[in-house]
Amino acid sequence: MSDYDLIVLGAGPAGAAAAIKARSLGLRVAVIDEAPAAGGQVYRAPSLALTATEPDADRAKGGELREKLAASGAVLYASHRVWSLTPGFSVIAIGPDGPLTLEAPNLIVAAGAIERHIPVSGWTLPGVIGLAGATILLKAHGVLPGRRVVVAGSGPLLLLVASKIVAAGGEVAAVVDAAPRTGWLARAGAMLARPDLIAKGAGWLLALLKARVPIHSGAAIRAIHGTVGVEAVTIGPVDRDWRPVDGAKHTIATDSVCLGFGLLPSTEVTRLLGAGHRYEPELGGWIPTVDASLQTSVPGLFVAGDGAGVRGADAAPLSGELAALGVNSRLGRGGDLASQAAKIEAAWHRSSRFGAAMSALAMPPPGAAAMIAAETTVCRCEGLTRTTLDMAIAAGTRTLADLKATTRCGMGPCGGRVCGEAAAMLIAAATGWNRETIGQPSARPPLRPVPLAAITGAFDYDDLPIPAPAPL
Q1: Counting CB atoms within 10 angstroms of each CB, which of 34, 114, 155, 281 has the fewest?
Q2: C-alpha–C-alpha distance, residues 233 and 222, integer Å
Q3: Where are the alpha helices (DSSP H) in 156-254?
């Protein structure tokens, strides 16, 4: 007999909402999350050492979410890293007390999204941090990423991170957005669906203008300079396809760079379990193929939140509730909830319009591969430069799987999460192939790096039973 009716992976807005809804329907629910408390990236719980802080709306929402999840009766396994899963479903994790295995006939994957990286010269220097990493420093620990920071990449996260740095008393030397201003205007119709979120974004922009932060649109970092750490960046203009073009270049003194190009749906789990996927650039890239209840092609495997397509934090809880109703229906519990599901689905689609528009703003066009210089390290784990990867592609490598086999790109501890998108961009730029043909990185356990000792426990080779040799 299974331990639970449902296991939820991730305790962010989508996962927590799924668990709370499922518990209200009488299901036995377990929730697993890497963080020490529920909340996810958006509503991340502050460190216990962070006491003197300004009032924060997201922090208040996070506190309310954690209270509701605790009151729901769902069992939360916090500080647990899932490193493997098997169909049916068994979830294998490592936690503070060692290995943990949970089983349930239904699984909702609410693993959120990961950052998209486009390597630039010097991005391996100390002092360069992702936009998501910067938000963790600011939200959870009240720590500035640097004394004088350049925030660069694409999409609305640039304004969020830069405004939080200013609010925390830091200095933002510049915001550098590869997307042109016309990109924002082109999506004005979708953004009007959520005037409250427009107002929030306008507040971020106003805070930067008041602080006299230079905002460079249609520009990108050409190089990050420094010896033992970041000392300066050079920025220059890019065209509508994000290819570097001739024009005025600027060198800006800085000791930190927050760099990111939007978000990718986290699909490691759904890939590992064999679900079907499709490529949807407007939703961040590869997403699982799902039905109306967000069930994948694998029976009992559901997705919610940004892992089903990057739609934002406001749409995420609705997708979690929809998936929970789908699980309830699959189990044959609770009568007819079709009308409730229809209302939630309609609200989810309305909220999704704004989030999808923001995701599309950050999505690099094909020309963005030209931003990666020849000597730039693309695969940090294996130390592979663009030149090395281009040589393999010129020799006939055409898919991410082939590139991994040929060069080891994506075979390091990150599992391709950092370099995979950039590698695919290089293949597409050289061959003209579309992303569906180039494919996805393979997913294999361990999904996240884990210490071998944590898996094996106390182990002595002398304890291995060794059979007697076969007679001659």
Answers
A1: 281
A2: 8
A3: 157-167, 181-186, 188-191, 195-210
- Helix 13-24 vs helix 57-72: angle between axes, to the nearest 10 degrees? 30
For residue 313, list its beta bridge partners. none
| Alpha carbon distance, N-terminus to C-terminus of the chain | 47
Nearest alpha-carbon partner for 140 in 236, 77, 221, 48: 48
Backbone angles phi, psi at 273, to 5 degrees: -90, 5
Q: Tell me the pLDDT tens digit for each residue of 135-192.
A: 999 988 889 999 999 999 998 899 999 999 999 999 999 999 999 888 777 776 667 6
Peptide bond into 446 cis (omega under 30): yes
Cα 115-125-153 angle, rounded to 5 deg: 35
Residue 342: count of CB within 10 angstroms of its CB: 12
pTM assigned to the model = 0.91
Residue 93's SS3 state is strand
Which two structure tokens, joined as six digits, stand for 63?
Answer: 């506190």
468 C-beta neighbours (distance < 10 Å), count: 5
